[in-house]
Structures are given as C-alpha cells and as structure tokens.
Amino acid sequence: MFKQNFNKRLFLVLLTCLFFSILFFKKADASIVVSSGQFRLTAENSWDYSVKKNYARLNWEKISNLSSGGYTLYQSEDGKNWAAKSTNYGKAIRVLNVYPNTARSNTLKSWMDALGLKDNQNQNLIQVTPIALSNFNRNPDAYLKDSQGNFQYDVIMFGSWDSNNGLDLTSNSVNSLTHYITSGRGVLFGHDTVTSNKANFKNFAAKLGIYVYNTGTNNPFNKELRLGSTKVKIINNGYLVKYPFELSNDQQLTIPLAHSGAQLSSTAVRWMEFLPPFKTVSENSTGFIVQNQYGTNNHYLITKDNLGMIQTGHSNGASTVDERKILANTLYNLAQVTLDSEASDYTVKDTTSPESPTVKVKSGNLANLTLEMNAKDKGKNYQWYVEASTKNQGKLKSDIVSEEIISDIQGYIYMWDEKESTMPIVKKNEYGEVTNLTKKVEPEDSRIIEISGINGLKDENKWLHVVAVDRAHNISTVKHVQLKEILNSFQITEKYLDQEGRTIKNDTTREIIRNGSYKERVPTISNYQITGYQIDNQPSIVANENTSVTLNKIAAHHNITYFYKKKISISLRQTIENPHQDLALPKNGYAFANLVGTNFTLSTISEHYSFSFPSYLSHPSSQGSVYTLFLKKGRQNLRVETIIPEYYIFKEMRISTKSFSDNQPFIQKDKVAKLDFTSTSHFFLTISLQPKISSVQYPANYSWQKNEKLNFLK
Q1: Which tens digit of pLDDT belongs to each residue from 390-403?
Q2: Whole-structure pTM over 0.70, yes or no?
Q3: What is the CATH number of the domain that holds 254?
Q4: Do 137 and 199 share a domain, yes or no?
Q5: What is the pLDDT of residues 298-307, one digit of tens each?
Q6: Residues 156, 95: contact at Cβ < 8 Å?
C-alpha cells in the first residue's frame, strides 16, 4: 500500500516538474536574458495581422506596493542608448490639456474627439480633460492626482495659443510638474511655452534637449532665430509618425503658420522640420535657418524621453487635420507609464533585409515543372527592461532581455529573361510599402511560394531573377539563377536523319539525372546504315554499327543526331512478248543505273551501276534479280535505263513498290525508269520487250549470248 501511494506521489511530482519545465522553456524561448534584474521580464516577437505590423509582447512579474509611478518600459536598439516607450497600444490614454486661459485656446479636446480614434472597448482612444492654466497654477496636484494621491493622467499638454497668451507656470507648478515628469509620464509643450521670456517654463529646456535665446538678434549669433512656415516635412519615419495614424514616409503636411521660438534643438529627436518659403512670425516676413554646434532652429516637432514640444498655437486656435493627426500621434507615444504587468511595444520594426531566396524544383516533369521559392527572413534585435516605482523599495529594475524582431516573408518579386544580371523592378508607395509583389506567400505565416507550368525543356537557358520581400517591406539581394542550374534531371533527345536531313524515325528521349551518364551503342534502323552522329552543334563524328556514344556528368539538355544513309533495293526481270520463232530469245536483260538528284539529270558525279537480270517469256510468277544500293547525299533517286538487244524493241515497263505480281502496277512506255526512293526502299521493275521484225521477216543468224558485247557494262 505504501509503495503504491509512493509511486503515485512520485508520478505527480514528475508530472508537475514536467509541466513547469515546459512552461519555463516556453517562456525562455521568447527572449534571451542579457542580464538578470530584480524581477523577471520576457519579450516575444509577434505579428499583428489586423494592422500588419510587428510588435513585442512583453510580460513581467507583478510587483507589490507599486506607487503611482507604475511601470515604465525602456527600449534600446544597441544595449547602450535607452528610451522610454509607450506601453498603451490599443488602450485609451488620459490627457490633461492645460490651456492658456482664453476659451478659444481650449481646442485640444474637440480636435481629438473629431478624429474618431477608438480603443479596444470602442471608447475614445485619447480622452482629453481641459483646464485653464491659471486654475492649474493655483493647485496643480489637485488636477494631476486623484484622491489617493496617484497621478491620474498619462500625458499633459500645455497650449495652444500664440505666446501662450503671455502666461507662465508658477514655481509651485514647476515642482509638481517635475515630480510628474520624474514618474515617467509624458508632457507635450506647445507653441511659445519653453522660451527665454517664461522663467518657469524655461526650467524644462534642458530636459527637452534645447537651448533657448532671446527673440530678434539679441543673442550670441546676432541672428533672428525664430523660423516658421505653413509646410512641414517628416524627417524621421520612426514609430511616432506611424501610430495611431500612419503617416507616409517623408510626407509633407500643411499647417497654419507656426514657428520655432528662438530655440536650438540639440540633443532632442527632430521628427519634423519646416519647409520653405520660410517665415519668422508673419506671412510677410522672411526666416533663415541657423545651424551650429548648439543645434538648429528648424524644428516643428521634437521629443526627448517622455517630453515633447510642438509649435502648434501660433495661429491662435487654427489647426488643420494634418496637424491634429501629428498631435494625436505625439500625445499617444508620450504616454509611457502603465500599472499593468504587460505591454505591447509597437515601436519596434524589422529593418533587416531577408536572405537571398533559394529556388528548387519541387515536382513535375521536365515539360511542366513546379518550382519552389523559399527565403529566410532576418530581423533586428532589441533590448528592454522595465522599471517599477514602489512605495517601500524605491525603483526596481527587471531583467534586461533581448529579442529579434522579425516580420517574416510576405512574398516575392520575380521575372524571367535571357540575361544573367537583370534587376527586378521594385515599386513602393509613400509609406515605403512594396506594391508590386509577383506572388504572395500562402498562408501568411508561410515563407514559400510555388510557380507552376515551367517548361524545363524549352526554357532551360532562361534566367530567373527574384527578390524576397518581408512583411516589413525589406527587400533581399537579387537571386539570379539559370533554370538549368536547378534542374534535377536532363533530357537527351535522339534524332534520326538521313543524309538529306529528313527524319527517318520519330525522336526518342531519355531522362538522365544531374551528373549522370549516357552511354549507348548507335541505334540500328531497318533499311538504313549509320554514317555518323552529332552532339548538339559540335562537329559530326563518323560512326559504324559498333560505335558507342558517351556523355558524362550531364548538366544540360543535349540533342544527339544520328545520321544514316538509306539502303534501297531494286528487283528486275525481263519478259519477251510475242516471241518470233526464228529469233533468238535473250537469256538475260541488261540495264544501266545512276544515282541522281531530284531532277533525274545525269552528271559526272552520278554513281554508275549495271544490272543483269533474267529474261523470260511472259509469266506472272517469274522472279527477278535483286540489287541493293545505298543512297548518297544529294542523290536520292535512281535512274534506270533499259539496254535493248538487236531485233527487239521496248514495249513497256511495269513498276511496283509491292511485288512483281502487283495487279495495279505503274505502266510506262519510256525505257528510262525514274525511281523516287523518298517514301519507299524497294521497287519491282518488269521490263517488257518484243521482236522488232514481223513474223514474215527472217532475221540474220544472231545470238545475243554468243556475240555478247557487254564489256561496257563492267
């Protein structure tokens, strides 16, 4: 009994250990711990299919006794330079708009509400509470904190009005605001707030990464530093200009006239700058860019850590939709504190190109192949840590973890041609998105596409040029591959031609694996004799029936052409019609023959032959003599001329390709037969003679056999 209980307990312990091991390794797989901290943090590369964007899913240990400072997420691209990031993607944020008293400057709420942005619960994504600056200055903590003393807003915005309506912070509100900023929460300063003539706002210049100077030329540079325009341009295409509104790369936007306030941005991140024609403070003025070791005066929107400054406000309540979108993005990305123990970092981006694609034959036959394209994406490494603000332990720091942000392959751009180094055309829209994919991967989490209907026989010498495109629209280097380089097998086509180049037998094919061999004895064909062969366009090689043809390490299709000369036969006999009783009967018939061209004209190069064949009295079953010849190039016909003995005349010639007994022979009255061997290899000729003298005439004593005069036939 004890043993059974022990075994059960042991099994449960092992099962529990296995469960937590799987859980641990699953979490460990999500990210690499660069250095251990005071609490655990994991990061996992993820993809949002709805907005088609990478994000890092972050989870950390929940810390007890958390203060209103909550958690702040820090991100680095190199492990050295760190920046706080928004942790509120998809969640509503609360914004306190401290406007400079005049009712006409209380515009931020209506601007944000009109944009129609919603969170995951269909509430306003940016929820604005307005308060006049004078009220804020009286008791800032009453607005910044709730009844428990916790900060209740994610971001504060000061503005917007020209010169900030001449209003400044108080020393008390500076202290409260400093405490608020130290908690990691965001502040966006509007037009003419952090300037040289506002002693309290000016306290935040260093934190903003700017230097402030007097207006006019009363500054160390003796130049008017205010610079403005009604046009601005995005000069940093990073995360801030991509959410909630995705602004196109390098986009130019229209705004009401605004200008920088005699400030030089030094260590701040410049997101947007003014475009010419430059102004200072009015439409009829002229502004000039100043740029030196202290920075530049050409800045419309800057940020540093959880602070930002935008020049909205110079035109006293005027705003374009473009400007409102910029405001929404900036406010949202300055909301960098959360009380949750998880976040999604949407500021990450895969900026690394995929590896060059691989291409291989997947299936099919040589005439109808399916190719497979595959590419491995490469990502960008980020690091994170979380800072927790506690009531009893101060600030705690989590592990520093690293994760590769990789978007994976979305598709390929490819083309075919006859050149080895063609570059496929890649088209992008104003957002930097590739718009001319030849084929997308399916399903979306695959990296592979297939191309069907490729003719590996006809197109073996064509080149495929392909680039892989990942879902972040990074483009690989070009893969140039000639089709024959990836074929797994090759076709040997055997052709059979006569000396005139005519096909005498249907082509045959053999499929040979790559680097395999072909070794065959030359084929024999009935009624033909091999004369040679040719591999592709190489010189012809003389061959006989014992010759073997060999190809080794085959890595291309080949044509092997076998050449033959045609063997022809002619059967001849002679018959004597109406014999004369006193006239000697020839025992043999004789004929001259010549191989000639298509016009049957004799020439000095015509091969000469002489034939002797039996002569009979007319008898249908009589047999003849058979002669075999080989046709030669340019002389594919046979001219046969009958030799007529004395006292005889030619009557007719019966020609057949079937037999002597053919009931429907061709009958001609000419003693010269013109035999065309193009479509046959055997002719049967029956030559008919008859006596030249009548039955009442008496011939001289004569015997063809006795007086044989055929030396010329030899």
Answers
A1: 999 999 999 999 99
A2: yes
A3: 3.40.50.880
A4: yes
A5: 999 999 999 9
A6: yes
